[in-house]
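Order emerges. As here.
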Amino acid sequence: MNRSLASWIGVPIMLPLVCGGCGAIPEKGVSAIRVGGFEAWAEPIPDALAVGEAAFDGDFDQGITTLRPFEGRLWMGYGDATRNLGSEIPVEFRWFAGADDPVARTADVFASGQGARQRNPGDTGEEQIEPYRVVAGSLWQPGVDSTNADEAWTQTKAGIWRSVDGERVQTKLIEGNVFKLESVDGEPIWRKYRNIPGGEHVHDIAGFDGSIYAVGSGADHRFEFGNGKVFRYLWRSDDGGETFRTVLRVEVPAVGYDTRFRRLLASGDRLYVLGYLNPYQTEGPIEGRSIVVTHRDGIAEWVDLEGPLSEMLPLRTFEVPEEAWGLVIARKGRRGAEKVFRIDGDRVVELEGWRDRRVLDVSFIPGDRRFLVLAGSGRPEDGEPAERFEILSGSTLDPDRLSTVARLSDLEPRSFAVFNGDVFLGTEDGRILRADLDLDDAGR
């Protein structure tokens, strides 16, 4: 497990954070960062890779979808919500105890009465795990796609009666999951809540003004969903996640469309609810469908988001720790250029220094104003050179300025995180690599 990958990785370079074209002069309060050579560290999903290879002839998502440090542990994600890997083998919450311990451990999931019978104590009933979110000091995970067994379990519940082709039938319900990290005798466990009404897909979760919000897509009843009546949803909980209710659901304009609220970002007195409308049947242009939520005396109100971000497909959001602003990664249409926006209260501003990159992940360095960015040069068209990947550094003092720290070669990264003073990188083929991170004290 400690085989060096130095021959796979370009020689790391040490650069100050400087503005392009103005000379190698460090910005005040910002200083050099060095990322060492990456080495193999862990191969945490051999069971999932073997089952996926057999079930899908290798045509499935094999990547480490996310890496999230939280309270001394490093949590990871994996799975495939398109091919439904979790219906073939339990997809679990796996974690690492420290930077010097590459053994992946599995947390139990408390799921009594919250879905189908578990196949093992760590069975989430999910096809894929991504992303993790911190809400009111606790770690949460939205259930992006329930397994076939969980969906069948929900359909045994009594739905409403309605007339279908002259016959009175009882419709079947749809529900989604959210998970909250807890502790029992010092060991991490996840509590499962199958309590999202209509949640075929639950894509994100966030805290806002004392409430918990979640977003996704689906339909209240299987009858609706099966007949192409898809809705994008905003859900809210005011009891710490014990129950959720629907705040808003918006139907597609016609059969052949998909629509989802996909990402959340809370900033100041606003909650940005970012979504899209996709005419997948005709492969027409994907359009943004986003709103901004505020509270008046605890009651949610919203208006349509305006400006360039409103037209784009939201991909990822990042909250800046201990600050009131965040980042949104979005793309114009199916294969258009990606852009990065800084959201600070009512201000939405594009960060032009991030242009011409495909941003995969952002990791904020604990106790420091600096952060690292994992980015590619953009997915190539047929016949074009392979995508190039790099790690860049920036500062919350001036987030529009980035500087290359390391260039990666002969591997395809998916996610990364700073954990216990090192950089951990998840790959598209199910591995985790590790590199030293050298900092001085000027950025703290």
